Amino acid sequence: MTEVEILATGPQCLVEDLGRPGHAGEGVTLSGALDRRSLRQANLLVGNEIDAPGLEMLLGEVTFRADGDVLVAVTGAWCPVSIDDVAAEFGTPVPVPARSVLRVGRAEHGLRSYLAVRGGLAPAGAFAGSWSTDTSSGIGPPPVQAGIRLPVGRQTAGAPLAVAVPPATRPVGDLTLTLTPGPRAGSIDADARRRLVTNVGHIDSASDRIGIRINGFDVDPAPGTGASEALPLGAVQAPPSGELIVFLADHPTTGGYPVIGVVDLPDLDRLAQCAPGQPVRFTLRGALSRSPATPPPAPRETSRRPRPARHT
After folding, report:
1. How does residue 116 score in pLDDT terms, banded at 50, 70 and 90?
2. How confident is the model at residue 295 (pLDDT cuts 50, 70, 90)?
3. Within 13 Å and on the Cβ side, how many CA atoms surround 139?
4. pLDDT number for residue 241
5. Cβ proximity of 236 and 188 under 8 Å
6. If you count Cβ atoms within 10 Å of the first and of the last residue's Cβ in the chain, which end, N or C, has fewer?
7. Do you know which Pfam families this protein is assigned to (predicted)?
8. Count of alpha carbons within 13 Å of 217, Cβ hemisphere only?
């Protein structure tokens, strides 16, 4: 079995696939890649199953050497790619000969880059059919660090694609998030609803894979019952501090603060590429009702369940 030896990493390097849907009732969140579109692209380029595990690199930066020939693709935020110090292409399948050193440099114009290896990665730590690392609970493989070896699996689905995909980029101006009203949309008053669609907020530095904190909307919800409710991917929670929290892949499965809406899944891919300070706007799909009985949005964790890798 071919293995990839990690020689160096950047600030955070994780094994991620498309997560483990269907386990929220057991307290296990979805997890998986934050920019799901970019991971899918990388897997398609190398001919993998769409949900095969790859590397998610915060700010890019990973160096590895495989003990056999491998085919790789790097997507997401653009970063320089080289093999034995010779420049290689970003966003297209690239063969890496055995014992050659692949270097992925620092990401530009975005936060997260993705690396897929043909066959997918299959380290120890798979749970509930997924190799995703959940940074909140610790479920899944440990963070990727120099010195570890990652086995290459057999999650192929067809031939590689001889195409190139453009990098994911953060918006030049404001990022607009489409919000579907949630079960507690009526917990904020008319002034807060107006600010929600007219103000421009900014991503706070206290953001991570669990959620993005956005300041500037001064949403002060009415006191709730304090009872915990289910939190889907993309839920927007309004704590009494006035900030908003957009929950990402490693979010808790329940929470007690009002959920005033749910962000569209494609917008979460773009949000995952945005750094602290990024200006953010909201646009509404439908009106925010004053009624606290607004029905909750449909479940969002509906992607196909990942299949375990088939080893030789």
Report:
1. very high
2. very low
3. 23
4. 86
5. no
6. C
7. CT_A_B (PF02626)
8. 33
Task: Give residue limits of the domains in the chain.
Answer: 3-151, 175-284
Q: Six-digit token pair at 124?
A: 């120890």
Specify the amino acid at residue 71.
Answer: L
Q: Which of 29-43, 113-127, 159-173, 283-297 has the lowest mean pLDDT?
A: 283-297
Burial degree of 82 (CB within 10 A; 0-12, 13-18, 19+): middle
Q: What is the dihedral of CA 189, 204, 177, 230, to 10 degrees?
A: -70
Class of domain 3-151: mainly beta
**pLDDT mean across residues, the chain:** 90
Those residues whose C-beta lies under 8 Å from the C-beta of residue 174, and which sit 6 or more positions away, are: 200, 279, 280, 281
CA distance 113 to 158: 23
pLDDT value of residue 180: 94
Q: Topology of domain 175-284, per CATH?
A: Cyclophilin (2.40.100)
Contact (Cβ atoms closer than 8 angstroms) between residue 59 and residue 111: yes
The CA distance from 76 to 55, in Å, is: 11
Which residue in this structure is represented by tokens 């530095």? 205
- Sheet of 12-16, strand order: 12-16, 54-58, 108-117, 70-78, 94-96
